[in-house]
Prior knowledge:
The chain contains 13 helices and 15 strands. The protein is α/β, with parallel strands linked by helices and about 425 residues long. It folds into two domains: about 1-200, Rossmann fold (3-Layer(aba) Sandwich), CATH 3.40.50; about 210-415, NAD(P)-binding Rossmann-like Domain (Rossmann fold, 3-Layer(aba) Sandwich). α9 links the parallel β9 (about 230-235) and β10 (about 275-280).
Amino acid sequence: xxxxxxxxxxxxxxxxxxxxxxxxxxxxxxxxxxxxxxxxxxxxxxxxxxxxxxxxxxxxxxxxxxxxxxxxxxxxxxxxxxxxxxxxxxxxxxxxxxxxxxxxxxxxxxxxxxxxxxxxxxxxxxxxxxxxxxxxxxxxxxxxxxxxxxxxxxxxxxxxxxxxxxxxxxxxxxxxxxxxxxxxxxxxxxxxxxxxxxxxxxxxxxxxxxxxxxxxxxxxxxxxxxxxxxxxxxxxxxxxxxxxxxxxxxxxxxxxxxxxxxxxxxxxxxxxxxxxxxxxxxxxxxxxxxxxxxxxxxxxxxxxxxxxxxxxxxxxxxxxxxxxxxxxxxxxxxxxxxxxxxxxxxxxxxxxxxxxxxxxxxxxxxxxxxxxxxxxxxxxxxxxxxxxxxxxxxxxxxxxxxxxxxxxxxxxxxx
Length: 415
């Protein structure tokens, strides 16, 4: 069961699950969702032993983490990192992940890492009066340089601060990508990783949203939309939940054999009080998208992505299209009023798919069981967060850019 749950990432060339499963990782959190999201994703990845020092964790996310991974062991200490005398609680940890938002903890974490000759992954939501986003940095002895100052929070002591779950999803994914690379001995980024943009104005719109695909991207897009206050969401997906989905589809821990779209809509409504609906069938050329204001493309095959692009162009619908591989992905924004290329045209999907039509390629329910592709949680949560953030920028009256993610580059996030 456990081997099958992790099957998609075990297919990645050079993957060493034993290193991840045997590691002990320590996490510093704050009074927000970031540490909880990191714990959830780390559990799905198969990191079995986490110690977290934070004033709180989200009970629902932690329960999901426990149920996703039967071997998961979480040690949680309710508190703040305020003195070097606490360093002993981190004994046995292979690396430290600092997700806190107060400078005292940031400085103590760097100091401990320097003295121990170990490694620190720092990630956090960044915000000032006009700019918001995330920053992340991997620190080890020898990286004592100026940019280190930019990852130390301005507020020295713990205090209340804005909590942006969408950006926290992005920051957690970036941090976990670096943690995975450190544990496996793969190259980590040598630069400060940033995703910064103008802070959007508040909006009071109530758009009707269609999400096509309720799998890996769909799970994180669903969470992001609900956290953003979107109530009217419809999910289209004909597939059933499989064990091998559970390394990245974090809301399906006990839904094996159930419909993905139905499960996702039901769980969103229960947790957030949304008015989510579902359609358990394939998206086809005759699917009616007229009731919807915005369409999210979260599917995993080129033919359907082409069809979604064509349908949205013909119907004049805003489209946010996401695609992922184990190491990369993109979030592409299309507004038909701008008369630019569709996502299918921009990404060259016609050439990739050999210009086949969707109705010439019949998919099979549970097709990933028979055509398994490597997949990992981090790229899915990162791209989903960028897709939802593009949507929020659009709702504020601005035009989001296309964002590309490459886990093997130093910058990681490219526009």
